[in-house]
Amino acid sequence: MKPRKRFGQHFLHDPGVLKKIIEAINPARDDVVVEIGPGEGALTRPLLERLDRLTAIEIDRDLAAALAGEFPAEKLSVVVADALDFHAFPEGVRVVGNLPYNISTPILFHLAHYAERVRDMHFMLQEEVVDRMVAKHSTPDYGRLSVMLQTRFAMTKLFSVSPGAFRPPPKVHSAVVRLVPLKEKMPCDEALFEKIVREAFSARRKTLRNALPLAPADYDELGLDPKLRPENLAPEDYVRITQRIKSRAAR
Predict the structure, then answer these.
(1) Using CA atoms, how far apart are residues 68 and 72, in angstroms rounded to an integer?
(2) Same-domain pairing of 95 and 216
(3) What are the tens digits of pLDDT across the range 177-209?
(4) Cα angle 172-173-176, degrees, rounded to a multiple of 5
(5) pTM higher than 0.90 for the full model?
(6) Same-domain pairing of 148 and 207
(7) Structural domain tally of the chain?
(8) CA distance 48 to 27
């Protein structure tokens, strides 16, 4: 089928890359797996060789119909939906996919809310996005995405993929990343945490004094220099800031 630009479709076809992805996932027969954006089914087929059952979320009705017609319903359940509207992630689910590059960041933020239900996730993404996901603080790639995901997942960049592995070739290089939820739940108000991180990085060139709602005494208590910038703080610093602001509001 002809890739549709409005869905950001780039169909993976390289058998060597597909083999490496399957090896990285290493699915067991009874695993509960959800695939996001199966497209033409290049990853779906080798997954189904190893799985009893698979759920695939596909926004393109034509692609969804083609896949549904190829496999029995008890083997492959195709959900025609936008991944951002999908919420039925069962406990212990493994999520995989070649994510549409035009909405990959919103999808990652969406999935972060289900970290407690997830066993692990393996995604093909734009390499630049993967580099931002795993970036350390005080480096150029570090930002809001880094903080939001690193407080919920341990992440590993597995390997890079050249544009020629796709049809049509994207203008960027890609990479496969593994996300494994952290064992301990985030020890702060998640909604407040997200608000603070979002506000901080919307003013990332400002100093902390001008980017965060903290008083001088807060900086002393937290051991932070108000002259630093948001990109200089580690993810755990944002957790501590959230705890501080929450406790101050409760007084």
Answers:
(1) 7
(2) no
(3) 999 999 988 899 999 999 999 999 998 889 999
(4) 135
(5) yes
(6) no
(7) 2
(8) 9
